[in-house]
Each structure stands twice: as structure tokens, then as C-alpha cells.
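quick one
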Amino acid sequence: MSVISLQDVTKIFGKGEASTMALDDVSLDVDKGEFVAIMGPSGSGKSTLMNVIGLLDRPTAGEYLLDGEDTSKVKGKARARIRREKIGFIFQSFNLLSRISAVENVSLPLVYKGASHVERLEKAAKLMEHVGLGDRQYYMPNQLSGGQAQRVAVARALINEPSIVLADEPTGNLDSVASDNIMQLLKEIHNEGNTIIMITHNPDLAKQSDRIITMVDGRIDSDKKVTKKPGSKLKAKSKKGRTK
Amino acid sequence: MLWVNIKLALASLKSAKLRSFLTMVAVIIGVAAFTIITTTVEGLRASFAEQINSYGGNLIAVNSGKIFDRDESGDITDINFAAGLTPTLTEQDFLDVVDTEGIVVAAPMSPVSGIVRRGETETGSLIIATNQNWAEALNQKVKDGVFLRDEDGDKKTVVVGADVSSDLFGGGGLGSTLTIGGQSFVVVGVLSKSESSGLGLGPDLNNAVFISLESGKELSGGSLLISEIDAQTADPENIQSIVGTIEQKLLENHSGEQNFAVATQEELTKVFNGFIDILKLASQAISYIMLFVGGIVILLIMLITVGERTREIGIRKSIGATSSNIMTQFLTESVVITLIGSLIGLAVAYLVGLLVAAQTGITPVYSAITLVLIVVIGTIIGGLAGLYPAYQAAKKDPVEALRHS
Ligand SMILES: Nc1ncnc2c1ncn2[C@@H]1O[C@H](COP(=O)(O)OP(=O)(O)OP(=O)(O)O)[C@@H](O)[C@H]1O
Ligand SMILES: [Mg+2]
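structure w/ adenosine-5'-triphosphate:
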């Protein structure tokens, strides 16, 4: 069964003359444990798609099933809860809260879960170690390099052990060394069995995923499996059947 | 969760100290005003209680003017101190009080106009014409000499209050002379310091001089009106019926017009407390306006804060905060800032209270209720002011909020 299943999803911003169709009849299925890379020109609707998948935004039309559950029926508190428990977000601009320390940023999702202070700090500290920042826990975000800040953001995304990680150009603001570092982390997360969707403009990074989706003008232009054999070319567009 | 929110609120206060302070200024002033007013008025109440208790528990006071009314059950209503400004009592009234069964001692008080001088030194002292029983009737102590004697009637003698004694004679003064309305008087008595500092009802007895009724009549050209008659009863059990008898007699004297009021010490305390309550409410109203302004300022600044922190709200929602989590966060911040403002206001009030005490002699009284009330008011203002901004924060769309720079 697909974890994520979109059927004819449309997203329109604004009204009348000024309206933009950010998603135009998008249908997509992602299986559990897949690592999907989304590519495409600026303004093609990649972030919009990711926001819909992450329950940050609602589609204008169409159906979105998350773990088989019709998300159009999930409202308010329950949506926040799914975001908290099933989904971890990583953004291009890190999106750390500047007034609290790195480790507090990492533990923030646990606050909303109602975890105790001790539990929060223990877990956050462990994840800080995991992303290689064990010695930077009490640094403030503005005292961290871009690569370090993004690793803090990865740790934050992982703290609730989400099954889906959504990364919107996670390496967009990083140099190649820091990018590789983040990519390494994402692959580790993937190897633990999690589903990952990553938006990127970098073909080299996209090639390290299982599947590359290319968007153009709010539509899925191509959807290809990546063959892992070194040297082999990308496979032809795969037609995925809906599993629901 | 609450603790996390409080820590966050403190962190955001610290990150913008000047703005936080400016946000609080109106609340600080409002709470300080509220506290100063309340504790000073309570101080006034306490000093009056002290004063009236110093008159002894068996006092019956007849006042000029209908300064209050009684309902069917005899309880005091419709307090109106302004009605007591002009003296309406007569010598006949005084004699009738003296004759009333159960009254052991009574003294009239007649204000006389004139200036008290010793050489070049003038005092703004009150001149009160009375009889030799006054000190006993009001339970006041004579430090040196005697209070006026009957036989001194035409000898121009005077008894001075404690402050007059120290102002004119550096304390003491027995046997010295001073002039009242141009006439020479010999000091035959000096009073001990009285609790009646003039803050409550009635005159400041420490800054008064006492002369005989005869002297008073002479100074004021023949006739005297009595402003107040004070009496002590030996029969406290029946004090209310004695009051009733006096009321009846005086009503006849005044042809049925009730332009006077008779009360026991206990009732006077009640009357004054009623007056204090009104005074308190009226003066607190001023500070409520200030607190209202404080609330509005907080509301506006919180709205700006919410606008500036739109991105933060988006981030929080993206990692799983519910709208009510966001609402609580900003409400807490608003309440915390108001409470801190309230505490600063309280500290300011305490310092001002020390000045007030030094200047006026009224010692502010801080009751637990006042302190609790300030915390409650602070919380309510902060809560109400934060409600709308917090709602604005909570309803932000996460995607829009994340796009905010
Ligand atoms: N909140 C919004 N209001 C109006 N238009 C929007 C909004 N969000 C996105 N759009 C529009 O929808 C389209 C898709 O935007 P989206 O952010 O999904 O693109 P993207 O593929 O992520 O681009 P980029 O690579 O630059 O991040 C764009 O034309 C954009 O202007
Ligand atoms: Mg984008």
C-alpha cells in the first residue's frame, strides 16, 4: 500500500485574473520506504506539492490519502498531530528559531507532544550527537554555519521518529561538502526504512534517490526509477498503478 | 508546557528590553497608581480607626448637619459629610445632652475664628471654645497643668495642643502667654500628643488651642454655634437607646428638622469606613483608566510582535504546533509581560508610599487582598489584551507564514 497517494490534486492560489494554478491535476503514489527526488524549474509547483503532502496546505480539488486516510476529513488539531507524529520537515532556509539554542530547537516538536523536560533534552542530545553536533548543543542558531544549522534542522525533523521526511531544497543554501553531509544523513534515514521526499535542483543529488519526479507548470512531467547499478542510465518513465 | 511558554515569554522580553519596558510603562503607572491609592486610603482608614479608638469606646458624638440618615432598623445610610460643614447645634442642645440619663460627661466644640500668635510667630491653629470636661469627654490626656477650669471663665486662659506647644514654646509653655484675636491668654494646660492627627474626621487636635465658651463668645462677638458635642456614657449596654433619647430631644429643639446626627463611636467608624469605601472606589477609577490604557498598549505591541514573528509561527506549525498551542504561547507572553509590569508598578508604589508616609504621615497599608487583587488585575488585563493578538497568531496559515521573511 502506498503511504502517500494523490489523485487529481489541483491547487489554485488567488482568484480570478490573478490566480495561479500551482498544481494541475497531479496524481502520485509513493510507497513506504521510497526515496523520491522532485526536480523542475522554479515555480513549477514543487514546494506546493510538498506542502500538500505535509498537510501544511490543502488542495483546491482532488484526493489525498495519507496512510490510507482521506486527509480532507482531517481538521485542525488532528492535522497538527499528524504533522507532528508522521512527518518531519526540512527547509532550504533551515527555519530554526533564533531565540533558542540548537538543542532546544531540536526538542521543540516534543514540547508540542507533551514530553517531559528531561525526556526532551535526552532525546534531543542524542540526535545532536547523531548529526555530529554533540559539542554544539547550546550554540545559538546564529553561531552555527549553514551546514551545521541544517544538521540541527535534520535532527529536529527526526525527533518524533516520523515515517516520512519532507526536504524542500535541503542543500540549496549549502556548499558541496555540507550538501554531501546532509545527503549522507538523509540516506541513513532512508536506510532505516523511512520514506523521503526531497526537492532539489542538483541532478547529482537526485541521482542518489530511488526515483526522480520532474515537474513542469504544476504537472508531473516525468517520473523515473533510478537504477542503482553504477554507470547504468536512468530507466524509462515508469507507470505506477494506483494501489488503493 | 506552561513553563516552556513562560520561559519563551521571558526570552522574548529579554531579546527586546527597551520595547518590553515601553510596553509595560502604562501598566506600571496604572498598577502603581492603583496600589498607591488603595494602600494610602487603607492607611487613612487605619489612622482614623486609631484616632476614633483613642476617644474611648463609650463615645457618643453629636455632629452638625445631617451627615447621615438611618433606615428603619436604625442602621446608618446616606452618608454626606458636606452637610456637616456649618455648625447647627446650640447651647440648649448641649445642656440636653448633659441631662440625658446615662451620660457621665459631655463637652461642646465651637470653632472660633482668629489668629494665634506668640510675639511675631503665628500658627495656623484652630481655636476651639469648649468647657472644662472636653479632655475627659474625648479621652484626651493633659500633659502639663489642667484643662480649663470653671472659675477660669473670665480669666482668659488657654490649653494648647501638643504641636502648638512645640511650635510656639519648643514644648511645654505652661504659664506663658499668647494672643488670640489680639487678646492675651495664659497657658494653663498642655495636651499630650493625640492620635487625632486630623487625617480622619474632625479637627487636628494637636494643632488646636482650647478656650472657654465665654472667651469664645467674646472673641466672636456674643453668640456661638456649636459644631460638635462629644459625650461619654457609663452605660455601654444601652448606648443605642441613649442615642435615641438624645436624637428625640434635639429633634424637638430643632423644631423637627433633622440638621444634626448622633452616633456612637462604633457607628462613626462605620460611617467613616463607608466614606473610605466610596473614596477608594472613586480614586481607583482613575487608575482603572490608566490600566485600560496599559491594556490597549499591550494589545497593540502584541499585534506588532505577532506580525514580526509570523515566520516563527509558521515554523512552529510545520513541526506540529496546533493553533491552540500558538494561542497559548502568545497569551502567556501577554500575561507574563503584564504581570512583570504589575510587579514593577508595585515596587514603584512601595517607594512612592515611603514618600507619602514621610510627607503626610499616612502609612500605606498593604493588605493581602490588595496584593492578590493586583496580580488578578494584571492577569486579566494581560489576558484580555493578549486575546486578539494571540488569536491572530493562531489563525495564521502555516504556508503563508513560512513564506514571510
Ligand atoms: N501562497 C501563494 N499565493 C499565490 N501564489 C503562490 C503561493 N504559493 C505559491 N504560489 C505560486 O504557485 C506556483 C508554484 O509555486 P511553488 O512555490 O510551489 O514553486 P516551486 O516549484 O517550489 O519553485 P522554487 O523552485 O522556486 O521553489 C508559483 O507560480 C508561485 O508563484
Ligand atoms: Mg520551492
